[in-house]
Amino acid sequence: MNDRERYREAQKASIISLIVNIVLTGLKIMVGLAAGSAALVADGFHSASDLIGTLVVMQGIKIAHQPADESHPYGHYRAETITSKILAIILILTAMGLGYEGLQVLRSPELSPPEMLALYIALFSVIAKEGIYQYNIRIGKRIKSSAIIADAWHARSDAFSSIAASIGIVGSILGYPIMDPLAAIFVAFLILKTGVSIYVDSIKTLMDTAPPKEILDMIETAALAAEGVEDVHDIKVRQYGSKYLIDIKICVNPYITVEEGHGAAARAKLSIMNEVDDVQDVLIHVNPCYSRHKRD
């Protein structure tokens, strides 16, 4: 999949999420306030954070797919990782605010059960948000977009929070009004957990954490398949947004010409880029294999 198709898929997923989040945010907050449900209001603000997050994702993806320039010779792909980090911070701040509001309601001397309409909206939200999660996670994995995947998990956390809100509303209607603010606090915990998880993943990428061993093995196998390459060592891989930047050392016959050694490196690079998905560039250092060749 080329960058243009990838960008088109990412934008489509973001626009669908945006429309759903606008509708759900308005419904939850208005009905939650009218029906007297703290859990649904908390869930509504969670959807509002989804809305903000989707806007951030759309802008981040737009930047990430801009072509390389003099200031960014490797391109702008890391904008997706930065977007994921911003999204995580939005989630964490939202969780802290909602948890505080839930505690304030819990301390209130008068707790009254919400109206039945609040439950219907919460259940509708569960279905809508799970649908957004399933769609976005499929697209995110297919185009290898950390920002879309983060937005998908943001949607699922909203679905979970709507389930918690539904439980709180039902418990409150059945005569246990304390269940509603407790559900709001539980929602805040779920949001916080998701936010921290996304933040940690984005930090790992920004810190150039090595990819899974399977990727390293694929790179080694592809390089060794190139004619003239006798050994491979010191493979280093950085994840640059959705792309990989690879540094590798190959070993060749020490008695061939410089041009032949360069040819072996070129074949190794081509083999890696053909066999390993999403490789942005490969830098190859050529070393002589003296241990394997002795001059007569």
TrEMBL record:
<keyword id="KW-0472">Membrane</keyword>
<feature type="transmembrane region" description="Helical">
    <location>
        <begin position="117"/>
        <end position="137"/>
    </location>
</feature>
<dbReference type="Pfam" id="PF01545">
    <property type="entry name" value="Cation_efflux"/>
</dbReference>
<feature type="transmembrane region" description="Helical">
    <location>
        <begin position="158"/>
        <end position="176"/>
    </location>
</feature>
<comment type="similarity">
    <text>Belongs to the cation diffusion facilitator (CDF) transporter (TC 2.A.4) family.</text>
</comment>
<dbReference type="InterPro" id="IPR027470">
    <property type="entry name" value="Cation_efflux_CTD"/>
</dbReference>
<feature type="transmembrane region" description="Helical">
    <location>
        <begin position="15"/>
        <end position="42"/>
    </location>
</feature>
<dbReference type="InterPro" id="IPR058533">
    <property type="entry name" value="Cation_efflux_TM"/>
</dbReference>
<feature type="domain" description="Cation efflux protein transmembrane">
    <location>
        <begin position="15"/>
        <end position="207"/>
    </location>
</feature>
<dbReference type="InterPro" id="IPR002524">
    <property type="entry name" value="Cation_efflux"/>
</dbReference>
<dbReference type="InterPro" id="IPR036837">
    <property type="entry name" value="Cation_efflux_CTD_sf"/>
</dbReference>
<protein>
    <submittedName>
        <fullName>Cation diffusion facilitator family transporter</fullName>
    </submittedName>
</protein>
<feature type="transmembrane region" description="Helical">
    <location>
        <begin position="182"/>
        <end position="200"/>
    </location>
</feature>
<feature type="domain" description="Cation efflux protein cytoplasmic">
    <location>
        <begin position="211"/>
        <end position="289"/>
    </location>
</feature>
<dbReference type="InterPro" id="IPR027469">
    <property type="entry name" value="Cation_efflux_TMD_sf"/>
</dbReference>
<keyword id="KW-0813">Transport</keyword>
<keyword id="KW-1133">Transmembrane helix</keyword>
<dbReference type="InterPro" id="IPR050291">
    <property type="entry name" value="CDF_Transporter"/>
</dbReference>
<dbReference type="Pfam" id="PF16916">
    <property type="entry name" value="ZT_dimer"/>
</dbReference>
<dbReference type="GO" id="GO:0016020">
    <property type="term" value="C:membrane"/>
</dbReference>
<keyword id="KW-0812">Transmembrane</keyword>
<dbReference type="GO" id="GO:0008324">
    <property type="term" value="F:monoatomic cation transmembrane transporter activity"/>
</dbReference>
